[in-house]
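Page 37, continued from 36.
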């Protein structure tokens, strides 16, 4: 029995239209795909429907662990916050329409009022509950403050909501200066999904950007330790290949997806 389940994050083949992203994921051997709201909006702008997306997922036997991305909700107050929540609700409604279980919600880029953010995350979770979608909190290694798994745990603890979950990611872990060992502090039920990628030795971690990520095993992150930590806490959920490389976008998306799955499995099932 496989140690984990395998998912393709559509960022990896993001120039491919969403219906083709779904077919590519299925043909490459994945059981799931993370969809981006920007791609869903592009499909709608071209005259497509969310019903078509849902049918494509069902026809290809894929599930959607998360949709991406809910932004702008953490920090503002007043009218700006109300506007951010309106957009978040719209996206959560999209998530529900395509059958997603979670929608990823991220931190502010600059200084973070953690007390306010926790209140707003609780509010977001309550909206998600009415729609059957759980907003999952993601730390981002390149933002100013909420850049480590340790920071995400703090927000979730402050929120004190039964539906609160965290998205974990090797790139964001090393980029933000956190420790892989912090995974061992997590209840596996609090992990919405584990993104999976690697980082090169150069540039230094603290200078890396999304597009610097490389295929699992092509960099220097101890991904074996990552997988062992997940297994040790009882997590056997999704590993999702999330890359943003321009050189991969120039290649055939099916070959990229297949290569990514093979490299994930080579590490995770060792």
């Amino acid at each position: 029995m496989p140690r984990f389940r395998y998912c393709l994050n559509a960022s990896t083949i993001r120039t491919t239209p969403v219906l083709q992203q779904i077919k590519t994921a299925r043909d490459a051997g994945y059981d799931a795909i993370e969809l981006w709201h920007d791609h869903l909006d592009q499909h709608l702008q071209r005259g497509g429907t969310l019903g078509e997306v849902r049918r494509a997922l069902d026809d290809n036997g894929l599930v959607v662990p998360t949709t991406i991305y809910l932004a702008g909700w953490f920090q503002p107050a007043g009218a700006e916050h109300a506007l951010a929540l309106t957009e978040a609700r719209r996206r959560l409604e999209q998530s529900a329409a395509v059958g997603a279980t979670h929608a990823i919600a991220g931190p502010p880029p600059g200084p973070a009022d953690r007390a306010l953010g926790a209140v707003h995350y609780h509010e977001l979770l309550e909206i998600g509950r009415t729609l059957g979608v759980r907003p999952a909190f993601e730390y981002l290694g390149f933002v100013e403050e909420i850049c480590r798994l340790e920071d995400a745990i703090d927000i979730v603890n402050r929120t004190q909501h039964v539906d609160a979950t965290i998205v974990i990611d090797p790139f964001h872990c090393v980029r933000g200066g956190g420790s892989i060992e912090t995974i061992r502090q997590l209840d596996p039920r609090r992990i919405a999904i584990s993104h999976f990628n690697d980082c090169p030795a150069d540039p230094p971690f603290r200078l890396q950007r999304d597009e610097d990520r490389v295929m699992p095993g092509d960099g220097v992150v101890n991904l074996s330790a990552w997988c062992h930590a997940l297994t040790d806490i009882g997590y056997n959920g999704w590993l999702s290949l999330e890359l943003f490389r321009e050189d991969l976008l120039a290649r055939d998306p099916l070959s990229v997806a297949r290569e990514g799955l093979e490299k994930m499995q080579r590490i995770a099932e060792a």
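The mean pLDDT is 97. Flag for discussion at group meeting. The two ends are 13 Å apart (CA to CA).
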